[in-house]
Amino acid sequence: MTIDARNYCMQQGIINGTPLTDSDVRSVWDDLQDPTYNIRSVAYLTLYNSYQLGIARPSLTTSLADTQALLARYNGTGDDAEQYGRELIGLYNVLGNYNQLSRNQ
Fold first, then answer.
1. What pLDDT score does 105 carry?
2. Going by C-beta distance under 8 Å and a sequence separation of 6 or more, which residues neighbour residue 58?
3. DSSP letter at 22?
4. I want to staple 20 with a disulfide (CB 3.0 to 4.6 A). Which of 24, 72, 78, 100 is the partner?
5. CB 6, CB 15: distance < 8 Å
6. Contact at 8 Å (CB) between 86 and 68?
7. 89 burial class (0-12, 13-18, 19+ CB within 10 angstroms)?
8. Is the distance from CB of 81 to CB of 72 less than 8 angstroms?
9. Through-space distance between the first and last CA atoms of the chain, rounded to whole angstroms
10. Using alpha carbons only, how large is the chain's radius of gyration in Å?
């Protein structure tokens, strides 16, 4: 999935680079052990997941329903992923409220 997400972001002009192939799986796996590469990959995956779901790219105005769908999709598809999205939206709301307080200061 990381390879697909990075390639999608390259195609969209979000990041630069050479498209990755299945032969890059091992090097991408190794790179994912680096926190900086890993965190960036999560961002790319979130953008790719929004494309897969047919929703707008995430922003500060993304609806809770779309956010929950993105959280679920990050964990895969099916009932377990949907449950993950429902469970995680509560934590998202707590963090969102905390960050809103920080933005208002």
1. 63
2. 46, 47, 50, 66, 67, 70
3. G
4. 24
5. yes
6. yes
7. middle
8. yes
9. 38
10. 15
Joined tokens for residue 101: 């307080």
Q: In this structure, what token pair is assigned to residue 41? A: 């990959």
What is the C-alpha separation between 99 and 64, in angstroms, rounded? 15
Indicate the length of the chain as a whole number: 105
Query: How many degrees, rounded to 5, is the angle at CA 14 between CA 45 and CA 3?
Result: 40
Sign of CA dihedral 47, 49, 54, 56: negative
> What six digits make up the tokens of 63?
């609806």
Euclidean distance between CA atoms 35 and 32, whole angstroms = 7
pLDDT digits (tens, 9 = 90+) for 5-44: 999 999 999 999 999 999 999 999 999 999 999 999 999 9
